[in-house]
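Hello,

I think I submitted the L-histidinol job twice by accident. Can you confirm which output corresponds to this input? Input:
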Amino acid sequence: VEDRTSRIEMKRVITASTTPQVVTDYLKRPSQKSNEAIVNLVKPIIQDVRDGGDAAVLKYTHKFENATSLTSPVIHAPFPAELMKLSPDVQEALDISIGNIERFHSAQMGSNEALEMETMPGVVCSRFSRPIERVGLYIPGGTAVLPSTAMMLGVPAMVAGCNKIVLASPPRSDGSISPEIVYVAHKVGAESIVLAGGAQAVAAMAYGTESITKVDKILGPGNQFVTAAKMFVSNDTSAGVSIDMPAGPSEVLVIADKTAIPAFVASDLLSQAEHGIDSQVILIAVDLSEAELRAIEDEVDAQAKALPRMDIVRGSLEHSVTFVVRDINEAMTLSNDYAPEHLILQVQNPESVVKDVQNAGSVFIGPWTPESVGDYSAGVNHSLPTYGYAKQYSGVNLGSFLKHITSSNLTADGLLGLAKTVETLAAVEGLEAHKRAVSIRVAHMKTNQS
Ligand code: HSO
Ligand code: ZN
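Support: Only one job matched these inputs. Its output is below.
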């Protein structure tokens, strides 16, 4: 039963009146189910799909998605127009968003362009990039359809020049897939859409089946089964597949000071909280008075109660927290410790704070930049590191779909100049053949000279 009366609020922690240990404890993510237990659940499914191909994928889709009428686990391009009928408004919104995502990710090519330099005279090193040939993009089903995720993965794959783009998403129980996802697949030039979810979809793309293309890398968010399956196949050398990053529940950290508008702050917290009861939202209130804090909390309560997904929001706010801190420096220290997927800065001179951001997936600067614009349309990617992984991972970007290849090219003089150095180090390692590959050439030069 929906409870629309009892107050919806976050815990409050005043850092000045508690210990650092308490603060650290509150910054901990809700613990995830042990990976081992889940791997044991997905392993038989993965093996079944690897050995049984299409029939096995279909079997699981019938079972888990209830899509018993489905007779093929995949549709191939060109996708029939009747599968992507959209209202003009929706089509326009997708087109504008795809345009921005394409522009921003195309601009990232700059840092991936071929570079060439001489490290020493006659010693030329270079680096160039090539697209990963076949990519599998997982689009979650679950409580919301996410065509935005199809854009965030599909557009950079297209910009990078990936040869084969395979999408996978769990079908609805009538066997269909949302027309928005089919439209995005069409726009990015996908070769196929796998009508399956969970571990079975991941396995189908990792190993390939009679009708599903095997891919070289699998990207995209998913529940714990999808994540465990991605980890499993990326560890199986016989699959030869890599993955983007470990995935966890969505999160946001908002830093707000006296200049922040309470309704804006609350709306940003709630937009992330509505993703799932396991989402975590954190507010860092910089030097706010009791009345200013109250104003935000009242907004959270009032806005939450008006949401269709109020129950999800209530669940997620239960493990969410407000930290009241003294100044922006303390706020940034906490934020960098937490390493949020999304960081929203609703403070005075927000641009000046960005230099202090050490760990975050994506930053939203100033009062006019809700996270929603980045989730859909601004052009930045919304596939971002969660669960503290912003400390070592980047979000999905153009580089996620490229490999960098290096080359070296030495002249005879270049090799002469480096010969002693290499020979010495090869001797240190006791690798005589390495040493000789140099000395044989040096000897050859000398013989041919005289
Ligand atoms: N905020 C989510 C992405 C998303 N939001 C999709 C709406 N649709 C990623 O953390
Ligand atoms: Zn979102």
